[in-house]
Design goal:
Blueprint: E1 14-16, E2 19-21, E3 28-32, E4 39-44, H1 48-65, H2 70-86, H3 88-99, H4 103-123, E5 130-133, E6 140-147, E7 151-154, H5 162-174, E8 178-181, H6 188-199, E9 207-209, H7 215-224, E10 230-234, H8 237-250, E11 253-257, E12 262-266, H9 272-284, E13 294-300, H10 304-316, H11 336-351, E14 355-358, E15 373-376, E16 393-399, H12 402-410, E17 417-421, H13 425-434, E18 439-442, E19 461-462, H14 467-472, E20 475-482
Parallel strand pairs: 7-8, 7-10, 8-9, 10-11, 12-13, 12-17, 13-16, 15-16, 17-18
Antiparallel strand pairs: 1-2, 3-4, 5-6, 6-20, 11-19, 14-15
Bound molecules: NADP nicotinamide-adenine-dinucleotide phosphate and magnesium ion.
The site of NADP nicotinamide-adenine-dinucleotide phosphate has 28 residues, from helix 7 and helix 8.
């Protein structure tokens, strides 16, 4: 592709208090197209001083925002939904360029991201409290649900629009102002979302966005600020655990959406066409770079060969290419390191006795491409079962009994998504009850929905995003004891 910069006019500065600003020390960093390696933008890199300023600006704006009528907050969110949909192609192009996902995935992400604004426009007017008589009759107990306060939001690169709106929308609906620190691989989409919120009339300073290469310093400064009240993080378990420790110093409320290692169970009674189609979505959305990506295929021994054959055919049929080529279904990985990680993960699995049915080696073309890969003959103990693969690689392990399938599924410190394909509804529900995961897809591979509580158990996180649960993360109860 050419070296021209189609997004030379896209916002590329810090967004603080309703103004585009340079970093206090004028530093910048580069954003690259993972599909070509080309430079797409130079972006301001926030400093610790910018971080302090952003928290103070958010705090001041938040004092007013919490007093804005819920209906008015809702209408701003509703307009943000509408404008995001109007700008769908522009935003999808930006996502493709900085993140690399296939066009269809990018359009799907814009729709999904916009839906958080619509959903939370509807939740903003449904925040209630409670009144009850104390058990011994000596007083009334009145409970208010109030905004938690200035919120620090930190997001990953894999869904640059949706991970931002999934936090911003409930924060705004609840009456909280925020500072968002997007991933440094993909800061541009978050800046475009800030522009939309400004265009639909969100008061200055309620949402601030700080792109930064110095993530640790910038986020650490904000979490130490005495005006910060909450941290909401999406990213790896490793970084989440660091931020939880920092949050503990100020006793900040914390919501954590962390890594996954999703099992995908296929029983012999499953409709194999449904299972192949569902497994393809569960594995390959966003090229496998998703926290809920199917990571361990646990397949009944009686159907393993047939399922692996059909699944490999479906994987091989995905056209590979740059996301701006709309026929491509598998785009590049986020960066060259991700490609070498895939090759190393597959190589170690093979050293341990596994076999690749398709793929396994990086694709020789400019940009960061790795092919759809299926690895079979995995035995328990193979290291591939312990990684969050985060790419287009599907390892297969087999089982004989339901108990064994469940035991394999739960043999991980993670517990985000899981998938079950079976023709037996009772079995599906038994598994759903016993599996250690925050989410279970039954006979389907696509589970994300703004109306549903998204989140994990074990080392996959704390709290939920989406659904009614998502707004509760930004509310705090206050109890009033009354004699009247
Ligand atoms: P990451 O490395 O943990 O980074 C996430 C965010 O934290 C980025 O904004 C990053 O900034 C920032 N960060 C990195 N180190 C930091 C530090 N020491 N202090 C403060 N902030 C820091 O994750 P990623 O590689 O972007 O994303 C992939 C991970 O996210 C996977 O594990 C995936 O499962 C998880 N994820 C989870 C969910 C969920 O809902 N549970 C959804 C999507 C992704 P820089 O970009 O500048 O490093
Ligand atoms: Mg990272």
């Amino acid at each position: 592709m050419s070296t021209e910069r189609p997004f030379a006019n896209v916002p590329n500065k810090l967004w603080i208090g309703g103004e585009w600003r340079d970093s206090s020390d004028s530093s910048t960093f580069e954003v690259l197209d993972p599909g070509t390696g080309d430079l797409i933008a130079e972006v301001a890199s926030a400093s610790a001083a910018d971080a302090t300023l952003a928290v103070e600006v958010a705090h001041a704006a938040g004092e007013k925002w919490r007093e804005v009528a819920p209906r008015q907050r809702a209408e701003i969110l509703r307009r943000a939904f509408e404008v995001m949909i109007e700008r769908r192609d522009e935003l999808a192009t930006l996502i493709v360029l900085e993140n690399g996902k296939a066009w269809e995935d990018a359009v799907g992400e814009v729709n999904y991201a916009a839906e958080f604004f619509r959903w939370y426009s509807e939740e903003a007017v449904r925040i209630s409290g409670r009144l009850q008589m104390a058990p011994n009759g000596d007083k009334r107990i009145l409970v208010f649900n109030q905004p938690v306060g200035t919120s620090i939001l930190v997001t990953p690169w894999n869904f640059p629009a949706a991970m931002a709106t999934r936090k911003i929308a409930p924060a705004l609906a609840a009456g909280c102002a925020c500072v968002l620190k997007p991933a440094s691989d993909t800061p541009l989409t978050a800046l475009a979302v800030a522009q939309i919120l400004h265009d639909v009339g969100l008061p200055d300073g309620v949402v601030n966005v700080l792109p930064a290469r110095r993530s640790g310093e910038v986020v650490g400064t904000m979490l130490r600020h005495p005006l910060a009240r909450k941290v909401s993080f999406t990213g790896s378990t490793e970084v989440g655990s660091v931020l939880l420790k920092q949050a503990a110093d100020q006793v900040l409320t914390a919501s954590m959406e962390l890594g996954g290692n999703a099992p995908l169970l296929v029983f012999e009674s499953a409709d194999l066409d449904v299972a192949v189609a569902g497994a393809l979505v569960a594995k390959m959305r966003n090229g496998g770079q998703s926290c809920i990506a199917a990571n361990r295929f646990i397949v009944h021994a009686a159907i393993k060969d047939e399922f692996a054959k059909r699944f490999s055919a479906a994987m091989s049929a995905l056209p590979v290419g740059h996301g701006l080529d709309k026929s491509a279904k598998l785009g590049p990985m986020i960066n060259p390191t991700a490609v070498s990680d895939m090759a190393s993960i597959v190589g170690k699995a093979v050293d341990f006795g596994a076999k690749t049915l398709i793929g396994g080696q990086p694709i020789d073309r400019p940009g960061s491409y790795f092919p759809a890969t299926v690895v079979v003959d995995i035995e328990p103990g193979n290291p591939i079962l312990d990684y969050e693969i985060f790419g287009p690689v599907a390892p297969f392990i087999t089982f004989e009994s339901e108990a064994e399938a469940l035991q394999l599924a739960n043999s991980t410190p993670f517990g985000l998504a899981s998938y079950v394909f079976t023709g037996d509804t009772g079995q599906a529900l038994r598994i759903a009850e016993r599996i250690e995961a925050g989410m279970v897809g039954v006979n389907r591979g696509f589970i994300s929905d703004p109306a549903a509580p998204f989140g994990g158990v074990k080392q996959s996180g704390l709290g939920r995003e989406g659904g009614h649960e998502g707004i509760e993360e930004f509310l705090e109860s206050k109890y009033v004891a009354i004699d009247w």
